[in-house]
């Protein structure tokens, strides 16, 4: 039996992987499942802007996300709203210099980036304010709805995540409110 302390996105993802590999896992959570930092996250899957080893792992993780999502959705039958439509970093007159600086830094770090003029941007998203002067498009940035991710990962768990669509695969996941000193 593997004891996994902490029921955030890391703990539940790890439990999911271990359960998928046939291991028995107990997730121990001192408060409520998924109510820590993971509940507040915006859900952007965006490597850090460095050339560090950490960034290499983040890029690899980003590549692995579609397969991870497929496995979670297949197992739970629930959509986690994973999107790979990229990100627009929009600028108005006062912030354009900073956004362009960030854009150039990402390009230097090997990211795919595309500068969009105001007319190009409005062609893409007509609802944007006419005060927007420029945008940096980052097609590699992905996004997940972390709350849907929790519902999907938490199938078969106790507490607020208990759902009628309990699945065999996660049946071993026991989540108990235990305080550790
Ligand atoms: C406002 C905000 C926005 C963010 N936006 C993004 C984003 O867009 N993209 C991104 O990648 N990241 C984002 N992050 C960061 C991301 O939320 C965290 O990196 C991630 O959620 C960490 O997951 P975790 O499972 O390690 O931690 P948590 O979700 O905090 O889970 C840890 C769990 O462990 C439990 N615990 C702690 N100690 C014990 C103990 N002794 N015994 C039992 N249980 C214990 C806690 O109660 C908690 O439930 C954001 C964070 C914040 C705050």
TrEMBL record:
Residues 5-153 form the FAD dependent oxidoreductase domain. GO terms for molecular function: oxidoreductase activity. One of its GO terms (cellular component) is cytoplasm. The keyword Chloroplast does not apply. Keywords: Oxidoreductase. Transmembrane segments: none annotated. The keyword tRNA-binding does not apply. This is FAD-dependent oxidoreductase. It comes from Parasedimentitalea psychrophila.
């Amino acid at each position: 039996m593997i004891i996994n302390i902490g029921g955030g996105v890391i703990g539940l993802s790890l439990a999911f992987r271990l359960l998928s590999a046939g291991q028995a896992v107990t997730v121990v959570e001192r408060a409520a499942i998924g109510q820590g930092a993971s509940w507040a996250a915006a859900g952007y899957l965006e490597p850090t802007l460095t050339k560090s080893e950490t960034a290499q792992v983040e890029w690899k993780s980003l590549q692995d996300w579609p397969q991870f999502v497929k496995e979670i959705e297949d197992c739970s039958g629930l959509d986690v709203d994973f999107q790979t439509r990229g990100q627009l970093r929009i600028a108005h007159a006062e912030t354009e210099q900073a956004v362009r600086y960030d854009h150039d830094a990402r390009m230097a770090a090997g990211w795919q980036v595309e500068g969009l003029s105001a007319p190009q941007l409005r062609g893409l998203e007509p609802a944007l304010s006419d005060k927007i002067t420029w945008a940096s498009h980052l097609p590699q940035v992905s996004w997940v709805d972390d709350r849907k991710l929790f519902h999907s990962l938490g199938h078969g768990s106790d507490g607020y995540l208990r759902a009628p669509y309990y699945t065999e695969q996660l049946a071993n996941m026991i989540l108990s409110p235990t305080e550790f000193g």
